[in-house]
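Project standup — Tuesday

K.O.: blocked on the structure for the chain from last sprint. Re-posting the sequence here as requested.
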Amino acid sequence: FLVCFFSQEMEKLIVCVHERPDALCRLICFPWAGGGTSQLAQWGKLFSDSIEVLCVRFPGRETRFMEPFAKDMTSIANEVTNVLLKELKEKPFAFFGHSFGSYVSFAVALHLKEKYGLEPVHLFISGGHAPHSEGFLAVKSVPISGIKDEEIIAHLQMLGGIPSKLLHNEDMRKQMALTFREDLRVLQTFLFEKTGMDIPFSCDITCFNGSDDKVHDVQAWQELTSGDTSFYELPGGHFYLLKPSNESFLTKHITRCIENAGL
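H.V.: unblocked you, prediction finished:
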């Protein structure tokens, strides 16, 4: 029964389009606010046999549409950790998160380190502020209840985060606005205060950003690891990572970083 329960839990939370049981390392991807797994899960086809790609599916969307949205960041971090713990203990893993996903990946990594002494071999952060920076505090103070659905959709459209086929479907637009709003609510519950000399990680951290995106407060990521921190700017806006040329750069660069982690 237990085995069956866990595989169901796993199936609910994780999408893996290209299983590679013999891979040396797993790359776990965390999508952006309002987003699902369709784009990042496809990365599984782009990596070599040494890396297996898993994409996290948050509650309230896709096959988890009937589930209530997550209440806070802690519940997401707990769920990901509980479901994936066996896999994370079994072989090395790296995290990639974009925007909202970068904060979720950090929260999960923090929880794993504090509770189990586990950490990724590399943390890849995309389109996100450092979680203890001024930029992040500004995101946390956005008054969610005051934002209209139309404003959310206009914002997402401006960022390039809505497939055009969804724009003309009112139900889809409503659902996207709701999902985005709920993800922002989760983000605002995330508390991280860096205290003094405390450095949570020892893995390398790489930060990616779109050259036309707003400037993210990324330098402070350096304070969160004793490993190396690198910064890359790729052509494009907030969703630069969906351009095939950037996708190709990202997958090659991530592969190189993971291979250099000396697994």
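K.O.: great, moving the ticket to review. The first helix runs from residue 2 to 13. The chain has one domain: 8-140+192-261.
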